[in-house]
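Reopening this one. Same input as before:
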Amino acid sequence: MTTSAAHVVLRSLALRDFRNLARLDLCFPPSGVVVIGENGQGKSNLLEAIYYLHLLRSVRGARDSDVVRFDAAGFHVAARAAGTAHHELSAGFEKRGKRKR
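Same output, byte for byte:
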C-alpha cells in the first residue's frame, strides 16, 4: 500500500512586529534556504512565525500579547505557499481589544 503526502512549498513570508522582527519580507527560492545567524538575531522567531500560521498560536506556548514586538500595537504574519494549489495565509493580533484577525 502506498500513500502520497501533500507537498506544500513556502514561497514568501512577510512579518510585522513579530517578537524581535520589526519588518521582514522574504521570497524563498525553489531550491530552499538555510537560515544562519548569531544568537538572538531571530532565527527561531522566524520559524515560530511560520508555525503560527499553521497553529494560530505560538508553538512555544506564549500568549499572543507576548509575541508582539516591544512597543508595537500588534503583529501580522502572512505567507504564500504552493502545492497542488496556491494558498495565501494571514494572521495577526492587536493588543488593543486583544483580538486575532
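So the earlier flakiness isn't reproducible anymore. For the record, The chain has one domain: 9-100.
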